Amino acid sequence: MLTRPSRRTSVVLADDHEIVRQGLRAVLEQEEGFEVVAECTTSEEAIEVVERSQPDILLLDLRMPGVGGVEVCRTVCERCPETRVVVLSAFDSPSDVAAVMNAGAAGYLLKDVHARGLVTALRSAADGETVLHPEVARRLFRCPSEGIPAMVEPLSGRELEVLRLMGRGLKNDEIATELWLSMSTVKTHVGRIIAKLGQRDRTEAVLRGISLGLVTVDAPDSPESLYGGPSHPSIPV
Q1: Residue 21 sits in the same domain as residue 131
Q2: Quick check: 235 and 20 in contact, CB under 8 A?
Q3: Do residues 27 and 119 make contact, with C-beta atoms less than 8 angstroms apart?
Q4: Which phi-psi region, left, alpha or beta, contains residue 147 (left: φ > 0; alpha: ψ -120 to 50)?
Q5: Is residue 2 situated within a structural domain?
Q6: What is the spatial distance between Cα 32 and Cα 76, in angstroms, rounded to a whole number?
Q7: Cβ atoms 110, 136 nearer than 8 A
Q8: Which of 85, 108, 114, 178 sits a CA distance of 20 to 30 A from 74?
């Protein structure tokens, strides 16, 4: 049985379609640990509300009336660094994904994400992780994003081995077993890989490795493979 979260995660919903906001609110309000503190229908309103309420998460539609989602993301990340911006969009263009991730977004989900996938992704984002919808990951695997900085420093042979095992989805203890290394050594390698690739966490490091041709992996087949849990109805678009 899953342990229920003890801390409430505050969320602002920014989408100009009422039915989408209603669906999102319904999903989150039935989950213990979430609180929807405000809803917005324009880009400017989203920025204003986030500055005023300082939520843990801004769940942001990429295309709303106003300055646009990328600018909202950039502004919120600069003015409210404690707020994690997760984009929820109907579009999966690699250029859109690259733009918002470079603007500081913590994740990019599509509007057909299952309810359980959304909840799990938002919890992960609130914990400081980067989250991507499976189809977004697939598109990035096929068409690496542009505009992402190159490696800060080349990877060593061992670091490349570790990165490729990360790309296969292995955890640190599994990598340690595979390469006959200690857990502390693996953690050190993972930290160096993330730093050398100029990324924020292991998910971003693997994606950057794929875009550089260092890693070849099969994309996840379902939301469960990224977010876990059973399938639930999709959020209405």
Answers
A1: yes
A2: yes
A3: yes
A4: left
A5: no
A6: 26
A7: yes
A8: 114
Is residue 94 included in any domain, yes or no?
Answer: yes
Q: In whole angstroms, give the CA distance from residue 150 to residue 121.
A: 27
Q: Which pTM value belongs to this model?
A: 0.65
Place of tokens 């959304």: 118
Cβ(151)–Cβ(205) under 8 Å? no
184 within some domain: yes
- Tell whether the torsion through CA atoms of 88, 89, 94 and 96 is positive or negative: negative
CA–CA distance, 11 with 231 (Å, rounded to integer):
23
Query: Are 81 and 101 a contacting pair, CB within 8 Å?
Result: no
Question: Tokens for 183?
Answer: 């857990």
DSSP state of 168: T
pLDDT in tens, 129-153: 878 877 776 666 555 444 444 555 6
